[in-house]
Design a protein that fits this description.
This protein is mainly alpha-helical. The chain has 2 domains: 173 residues, no CATH class; 48 residues, no CATH class. 55% of the residues lie in helices and 5% in strands. Helix 2 packs across helix 5. The longest helix has 21 residues.
């Protein structure tokens, strides 16, 4: 999973760009000036009008830490992360945006897929060998204040984001809002039409087909009735059977 996400990093940024166009992110203050109360009720901004609570931010940040760890083998608070310009806050907001976009598109991940991927991720830390959950929790999660629930949520959301990447990677092209509006109006525009129908049988008696009118019609349509030129050929046909006996004698 981690290798797949790294391999599709370009597609991931495409999803981020598309999601950014469709979802204007309003960055809030980290001090809670936009909301009242404390703890999870503090607003840290909005995405598509939905508030980002402190709990939402903290959960996404823990997932960002796990993703960085499985990609690089170190935690993002290490010197390498700072040297490469890895921004935990930026990645956390991106994570929230992608997770919510997957939820909005009703991307669902089954329990079996989560269990299988979690096992593969833990095996990657032990050269493909199984890793007991309690050992994984004690050696990897707990020292960073993480829990098995954080790890399970991370795996589930990563699978959902991967499905979102696959969805964004389908063939197509980006269109402007004006083009979308024009296509929608063209396909859904209503038209008012008036029509008059005449029954042919009601007017047959009023039609007079005189010889003069027929001749005039034929003259006007003469090109349609012209017969192509023909060639007359005269020939003599000799029956083959009349000469078979003579031919056999000459060949004998």
């Amino acid at each position: 999973m981690i290798g797949t996400i790294r391999k599709h990093s370009t597609a991931l940024w495409l999803v981020v760009i598309v999601a950014t166009v469709l979802s204007f992110v309003v960055w809030g203050t980290r001090t809670g000036n936009q909301g009242s109360g404390s703890g999870g009720n503090v607003s840290l901004g909005t995405i598509e009008g939905q508030t980002i609570s402190r709990d939402d931010y903290a959960a996404a940040q823990r997932e960002v830490y796990l993703r960085y760890f499985f990609n690089n083998g170190t935690w993002p608070d290490a010197a390498d992360a700072r040297r490469t310009g890895f921004d935990v806050e930026r990645e956390t907001y991106f994570r929230i945006m992608l997770v919510r976009k997957a939820a909005a598109l009703e991307v669902h991940v089954g329990e079996d897929a989560v269990a299988l991927m979690a096992s593969q991720v833990m095996r990657s830390l032990n050269r493909g060998q199984p890793v007991p959950l309690d050992a994984f929790e004690a050696q990897v999660l707990r020292p960073k204040g993480l829990t098995p629930a954080d790890f399970q949520r991370f795996v589930r959301n990563d699978l959902g984001i991967q499905q979102l990447i696959n969805l964004a990677g389908l063939s197509g092209r980006l269109v402007t809002p004006q083009e979308v509006r024009e296509i929608y109006e063209r396909e859904n525009e209503e038209r008012s039409v008036q029509a008059v129908f005449f029954s042919l049988s009601n007017h047959l008696n009023a039609v007079a087909a005189t010889p003069e009118l027929i001749a005039q019609f034929y003259t006007n349509q003469l090109a349609n009735y012209r017969i192509p030129e023909r060639v007359q050929v005269s020939y003599v046909k000799f029956g083959l059977s009349n000469y078979l006996a003579q031919a056999e004698q000459e060949l004998a």
